[in-house]
Inverse folding.
């Protein structure tokens, strides 16, 4: 058995999602179940078609090669950490850290390090401080204070 | 180099713009608070313990010091919304804080009440509560996300009896005629109502049982969509809250109403009891807090809400719009809810037989 | 109406009213431009300030805010690919590509002009056709809601860039996502997997931010880009005239978009998002140059913005005439009316005609104010994209987080947004465009309610099929669905034929 193409793997994931959706709707009353079952059924059929298509006519393309994987991974992990930090140390502190780090990191190493730091600090202060006040005072959205501080 | 300078000055410019907006709005807010305070002899002022008002209520802590979120677990424009909108300015005046109304519709209110019991019990999140909804949902479903006892009632301030209505051009003018039609065509009479396992749904089931008929109940996500579908002729009849019945009384025939006695704003409409069907149907609306809320906080809110309902002009307004004012405080509301729990348990058991 | 003319003129000439209106529109634009803050929220925030005003000033301010809020959504849609309000989803499809080509001013000016035109047409419909249109609103029962959502789903054909199969899969996946939470009709909990946070279902705005904005943020950092970014924007002279001349030659496009907007508006429950999507779809279908859509065709921006601003006027029709709000922001205006002691409904136009007509004319004037502010603003806001990507990308990420939090004050929503966003970045790379998923999510609840209620009604009548296939409005919608389904097939064949012909000529 040769390696499955990416399309086949995505199709299998989708089939699993559709099956879970159909299985989970087993105990629902008719009016609750009619729509998710329809949607799940359609998804299942389409995914099967997709799977068959990907097996019969496999396409080998490399879409992720043209990108700087390290930077993309950094951003993804950074975003996830950001949410965690908001929960832990509150919105303002987490945003200051997130913005400062990424403005610093994304400038690239060839920038003079002092200017790099300065920009990172200034951007992070202005953006998170400004919007924090805007949301807190004008739009009266209570922003999270963080688990560490009794949130 | 100069390009970068431009960018930076631009950024600073944006920041300054926001600060400007901030200061503009910031200066607007306190001014407004002052105005209401001076207009209302500073009974409650924010964060001000010395300001012992006419009631000498100085044992109070500083609550509230922040804006309060007042959740409506239904679509905007429904009865709960109308009530909250009516109270909002008075509440802000009495509590000296902004009251932010937030909608969270879904599942006949269950989404909102689950949200309520999961909120922090700090008094800054309260929610409209509807009886019988908050009783029936946990009784009828096991995984609903909240229990009736979890909701701390603050007040019950308003009730709308539920009535049964048909379009004016249907030719049906009495409940007997309607029931006869349902008997002649079992299961084909459709009645619109708001939600599943709600006051409307219960009224429907009760009437079916008492009159020994079979009809089709069609739930909508809120009273407004139900009214819309009914006025559009999609259903034979509608379970309507008294306020809607009053609003649309020129277009509909109201066959009966679920109040205990004749309902003041609709003096010509008979009650179900007067017609020989031993049932009452209505929705009581109140306000609740998350479980574990400090009794002192509840007291502050209870007083504010009760003071509002007791205003004669508010009562007058309520009657005019088809509501019945109620003035149950926290303790009375809790007892009322408990008695209703027992009632509905019986009804549900009977109906499931 | 003539006898109320002096009152109207008097009210509109009042400098305080004009000031409130301008401030309302400006405030609305700012709020609308920020993702996560909606026109509804802005209206609700402003409400307490209107207590101290008289009824006229209150309504004029709120009306201005509503109009500005819906327009403002296009700014972030165009500049950062994130619809500031759900109403401007379709604006992203062509607006953002224009920004990437360094022409955000063209998109912004198009949006301002077409919003103004749409808003004015919606306003005049509200002024002159309300009684007629209100009866229309009542003809929409459950089967019609079902069919209109089906009509919406046929848009997958124009929204799925590339593979139609992947588009359909995305649509089905979106429908499935929309069923998370408590069933609207059956009342049972679904797909919550024991989490109470899931009971509330997925918030549309959160998913929109996830699917449109996060992939863009990540794409920005894909490559080490030198400062200055991919696109550099310098305001051009004469853009306004250029765009105006282009749009003025498309009266059919604008009229069609406005009509779609108004009709969608008067149907309670279908909002500006549905209006803008339907209108965009029809613009694509009727265009002779379909392949240019999605790549920065100003017609796409015009169709979307014209429709969502026309929807504003439409949504006030059922509110003023029946007391049923057509959209969430309209419901807040209902609250304002009730607090001024005015009960919307059939007698509103006779009982309070001075106030109502003042409001309606103010509504129309506010659209002109919005148009002017939009045109002036387009010279400035476009410069935001000149910020270097190392600032822009983290700043946008920050905005998405604060926005998705603000909508329901829920950190869970932020987590969902980030999770779905990262997923969306990769699936987009694999050829699944976000449009169909979002479409499924928007239309799912409308379709589900319509389907379940129609089944209940049909069962009672003893014939479910009659319920779906015999009502006049349903039949019109079904015909539109079929038309929509088969035109791409026919025209695809047609285009292929042309291509083959031209190929053979080349040879």
């Amino acid at each position: 058995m040769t390696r499955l193409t990416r399309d086949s793997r995505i199709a299998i994931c989708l089939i699993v999602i559709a099956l879970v959706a159909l299985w989970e709707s087993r105990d629902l009353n008719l009016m609750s179940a009619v729509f998710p079952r329809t949607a799940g059924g359609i998804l299942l059929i389409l995914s099967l078609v997709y799977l068959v298509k990907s097996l019969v006519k496999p396409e080998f393309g490399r879409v992720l090669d043209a990108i700087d994987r390290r930077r993309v991974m950094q951003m993804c992990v950074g975003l996830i950490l950001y949410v965690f930090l908001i929960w832990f140390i509150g919105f303002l502190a987490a945003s200051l850290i997130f913005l400062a780090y990424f403005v610093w990191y994304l400038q690239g190493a060839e920038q003079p390090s002092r200017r790099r730091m300065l920009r990172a600090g200034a951007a992070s202060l202005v953006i998170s401080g400004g919007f924090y006040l805007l949301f807190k005072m004008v739009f009266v959205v209570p922003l999270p204070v963080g688990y560490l501080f009794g949130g | 180099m100069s390009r970068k300078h431009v960018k930076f000055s631009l950024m600073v410019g944006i920041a300054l713009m926001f600060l400007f907006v901030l200061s503009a709005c910031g200066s607007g807010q306190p001014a407004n608070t002052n105005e209401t305070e001076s207009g209302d002899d500073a009974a409650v002022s924010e964060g001000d313990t010395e300001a012992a008002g006419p009631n000498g209520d100085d044992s109070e802590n500083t609550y509230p010091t922040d804006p309060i979120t007042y959740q409506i677990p239904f679509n905007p424009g429904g009865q709960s919304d109308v009530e909250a909108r009516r109270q909002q300015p008075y509440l802000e005046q009495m509590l000296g804080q902004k009251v932010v109304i937030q909608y969270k519709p879904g599942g006949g209110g269950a989404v909102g009440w689950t949200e309520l019991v999961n909120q922090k019990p700090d008094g800054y999140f309260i929610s409209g509560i509807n009886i019988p909804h908050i009783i029936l949902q946990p009784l009828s479903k096991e995984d609903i996300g909240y229990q009736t006892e979890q909701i701390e009632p603050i007040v019950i301030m308003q009730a709308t009896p539920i009535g049964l209505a048909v379009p004016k051009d249907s030719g049906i003018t009495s409940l007997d005629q309607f029931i006869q039609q349902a008997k002649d065509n079992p299961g084909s009479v459709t009645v619109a109502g708001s939600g599943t396992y709600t006051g409307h749904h219960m009224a429907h089931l009760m009437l079916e049982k008492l009159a020994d008929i079979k009809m089709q109940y069609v739930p909508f996500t809120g009273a407004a969509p139900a009214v819309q579908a009914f006025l559009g002729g999609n259903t034979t009849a509608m379970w309507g809250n008294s306020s809607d019945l009053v609003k649309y009384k020129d277009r509909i025939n109201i066959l009966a109403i679920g109040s205990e006695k004749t309902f003041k704003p609709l003096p010509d409409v008979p009650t179900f009891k007067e017609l020989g069907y031993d049932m009452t149907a209505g929705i009581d609306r109140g306000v609740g807090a998350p479980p574990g809320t400090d009794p002192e906080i509840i007291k502050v809110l209870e007083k504010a809400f009760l003071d509002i309902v007791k205003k004669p002009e508010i009562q007058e307004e309520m009657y005019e719009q088809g509501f019945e004012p109620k003035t149950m405080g926290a303790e009375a509301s809790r007892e009322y809810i408990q008695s209703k729990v027992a009632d509905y348990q019986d009804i549900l058991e009977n109906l499931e037989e | 109406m003539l006898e109320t003319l002096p009152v109207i003129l008097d009210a509109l000439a009042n400098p305080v009213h004009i000031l409130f209106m301008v401030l309302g529109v400006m405030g609305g634009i700012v709020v609308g431009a920020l993702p996560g803050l909606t026109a509804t929220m802005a209206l609700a925030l402003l409400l307490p300030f209107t207590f101290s005003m008289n009824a006229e000033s209150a309504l004029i301010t709120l009306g201005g805010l509503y109009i500005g809020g819906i327009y403002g959504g296009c700014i972030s849609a165009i500049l950062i690919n994130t619809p500031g309000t759900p109403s401007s989803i379709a604006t992203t499809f062509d607006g953002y590509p224009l920004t990437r080509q360094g022409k955000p001013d063209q998109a912004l000016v198009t949006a301002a002009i077409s919003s103004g035109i749409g808003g004015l047409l919606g306003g005049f419909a509200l002024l002159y056709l309300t009684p007629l249109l209100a009866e229309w609103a009542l003809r929409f029962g459950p089967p019609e809601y079902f069919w209109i959502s089906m009509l919406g789903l046929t848009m997958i054909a124009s929204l799925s860039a590339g593979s139609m199969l992947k588009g359909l899969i995305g649509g089905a996946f979106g429908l499935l996502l929309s069923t998370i939470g408590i069933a609207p009709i059956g009342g049972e909990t679904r797909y919550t997997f024991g989490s109470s946070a899931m009971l509330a279902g997925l918030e549309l705005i959160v998913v929109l931010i996830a699917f449109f904005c996060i992939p863009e943020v990540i794409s920005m950092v894909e490559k080490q880009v030198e400062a200055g970014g991919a696109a550099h924007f310098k305001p051009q002279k004469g853009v306004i005239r250029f765009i105006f001349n282009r749009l003025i030659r498309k009266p059919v496009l604008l009229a069609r978009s406005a009509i779609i907007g108004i009709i969608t508006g008067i149907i309670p429950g279908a909002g500006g998002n549905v209006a803008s999507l339907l209108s965009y779809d029809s613009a694509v279908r009727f265009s002779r140059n379909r392949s240019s859509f999605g790549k920065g065709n100003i017609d796409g921006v015009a169709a979307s913005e014209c429709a969502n601003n026309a929807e504003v006027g439409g949504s006030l029709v059922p509110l003023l005439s029946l007391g049923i709000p057509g959209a969430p922001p309209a419901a807040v205006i209902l609250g304002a009316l009730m607090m001024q002691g005015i009960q919307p409904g059939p007698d509103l136009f006779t009982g309070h005609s001075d106030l109502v007509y003042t409001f309606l004319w103010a509504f129309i004037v506010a659209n002109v104010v919005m148009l002017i502010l939009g045109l002036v603003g387009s010279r400035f806001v476009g410069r935001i994209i000149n910020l270097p990507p190392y600032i822009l990308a983290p700043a946008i990420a920050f905005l998405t987080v604060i926005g998705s939090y603000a909508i329901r004050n829920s950190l869970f929503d932020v987590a969902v947004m980030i999770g779905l966003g990262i997923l969306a970045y990769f699936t987009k790379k694999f050829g699944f465009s976000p449009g169909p998923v979002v479409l499924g999510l928007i239309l799912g609840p409308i379709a589900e309610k319509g389907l379940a209620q129609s089944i209940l009604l049909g069962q009672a009548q003893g014939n479910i099929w009659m319920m779906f296939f015999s009502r006049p409005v349903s039949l019109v919608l079904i015909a539109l669905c079929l038309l929509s389904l088969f035109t791409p097939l026919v025209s695809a064949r047609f285009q292929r034929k042309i291509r083959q012909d031209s190929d053979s000529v080349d040879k």
